[in-house]
Design brief:
- By secondary structure, this protein is an alpha+beta fold.
- The protein has three domains: about 90 residues, conserved putative lor/sdh protein from methanococcus maripaludis s2 fold (Beta Barrel); about 100 residues, Efflux pump adaptor protein, beta barrel domain (Elongation Factor Tu (Ef-tu), domain 3), CATH 2.40.30; about 140 residues, OB fold (Dihydrolipoamide Acetyltransferase, E2P) (Beta Barrel).
- About 25% of the residues lie in helices and about 35% in strands.
- The strands form five sheets. Strands 1, 18, 19, 20, 23 and 24 form a six-stranded mixed beta sheet that branches. The chain has a six-stranded antiparallel beta sheet with strand order 13-16-3-12-15-14, with helices on one face. It has a four-stranded antiparallel beta sheet with strand order 2-17-22-21, with no helix packed on it.
């Protein structure tokens, strides 16, 4: 019986202990620890990347303008040529003969003109003395006019003959590099023979690249300064092997029409090409970049989150509470990104512990030092 009383007493004590534990207040949980970085202003040179193609400023296709056999090919395929260099010679014999014939015809016409002039002068004197008729004088005047017209006609023929003779020498109209020749010495050439060779200019040279209408608007907006002036830009090129081209270019043309199929505008820059590294037709990567750095707000890229509504960051306010901020971002700068809107300098943006907090939550924030490049 005594044993039963002890068991009942023990059960009561256990229940009383449990009640006392339930009545004790639960200590509050500690705020989540997060790492923050203040939004700061850095010098940033905005840039935009595109795919472009190298294009020669001048390309000339050499063709024969007269018919004849090639007497000489006076260049080595692939060599650099200067404007005025003699490249092809077509046989001259028949064209020189045409020039000589035209000159002889002019001499004969001038002799006829002289004779006609003398006849007309004599007949007019006879009319004055009534020893000759007016009809004879009029006939002599017509002969004189005919002789003068014959001179003009033969001079025109001489011009054509001389021009044809000049076409026997095919010269370089521009500086550049000449390609393969389609026909060699001894072949018959004429206007239907097609392109004999092509000269491509080398220095300077163009790079052309399509830019979407939206990106073009962004570039123009980024260039405008508060005083209305424009920030100067330069065009940099990266070769197909990843090598940076050593000479920056100058943006000098924007197409006035939009390609309706791609919604892009063709842009062009001029590049110096003294080492002949850039070749007409080659694909390159083009970077349109501001020449001087401009002050921009930046925040770590790790802080930027994306959802269906766009980009946002979590900020710790003065009350140590988490706040969501919608942002628009721009260029990447190392591990940071330019913030165009949504933040101000000094805002404490969460960069560590983003996934374990939510807006409105109180947190324990620790400032994380910015990494320095080295």
């Amino acid at each position: 019986m005594r044993h039963r009383h002890f068991m009942i007493l023990g059960a009561l004590l256990v229940q009383l202990g449990a009640c006392s534990q339930e009545q004790q207040p639960v200590p509050p949980s500690a705020p989540a620890a997060v790492g923050v970085r203040p939004v700061e202003t850095r010098g940033v040179a905005s840039s935009y990347n595109f795919v472009g193609r190298i294009k020669a400023t001048n390309t000339v296709q050499l063709r024969a303008r007269i018919e004849g056999y090639l007497d000489n090919v006076l260049f080595t395929e692939g060599q650099n040529v200067k404007s005025g260099d003699l490249l092809f010679q077509i046989e001259k014999t028949q064209y020189q003969a045409s020039v000589d014939q035209a000159q002889a015809n002019i001499a004969a016409a001038e002799a006829q003109e002289l004779n006609a002039q003398l006849q007309y002068d004599r007949s007019t004197q006879l009319v004055k003395t009534q020893a000759g008729s007016q009809a004879t004088a009029d006939q002599n005047l017509a002969s004189l006019d005919t002789a003068k017209a014959s001179i003009l006609q033969n001079k025109a023929a001489l011009t054509i003959a001389q021009e044809n003779l000049s076409y026997t020498d095919i010269k370089a109209p521009i500086d550049g590099r000449i390609g393969l020749t389609a026909l060699t010495k001894g072949n018959l050439v004429n206007a239907a023979s097609g392109v004999l060779a092509t000269i491509v200019s080398q220095d300077p040279i163009y790079v052309q690249f399509p830019v979407s209408v939206r990106e073009l608007a962004n570039i123009r907006a980024a260039r405008k300064q508060e005083d209305g002036s424009l920030i100067k830009i330069e065009v940099l090129v990266q070769l197909s092997n990843g090598q940076e081209y050593g000479h920056p270019g100058v943006w000098n043309y924007t197409d006035p029409q939009v390609d309706q199929q791609t919604d892009t505008v063709l842009m062009r820059a001029t590049l110096p090409n003294p080492e002949r590294q850039l070749i007409d037709g080659a694909f390159v990567t083009v970077e349109v970049k501001q020449r001087e750095q401009q002050p921009r707000l930046v925040t770590p890229q790790a802080a930027v989150q994306v959802d269906q509504a766009g980009s946002y960051v979590l900020v710790v306010d003065d009350q140590h509470k988490v706040e969501m901020r919608r942002v628009t971002t721009g260029d990447s700068v190392d591990t940071d990104v330019v913030v165009n809107s949504g933040l101000k300098q000094g805002d404490a943006v969460i960069v560590d512990g983003v996934q374990k907090v939510r807006p409105g939550q109180t947190v324990d924030a620790t400032v994380i030092a910015a990494q320095t490049g080295g």
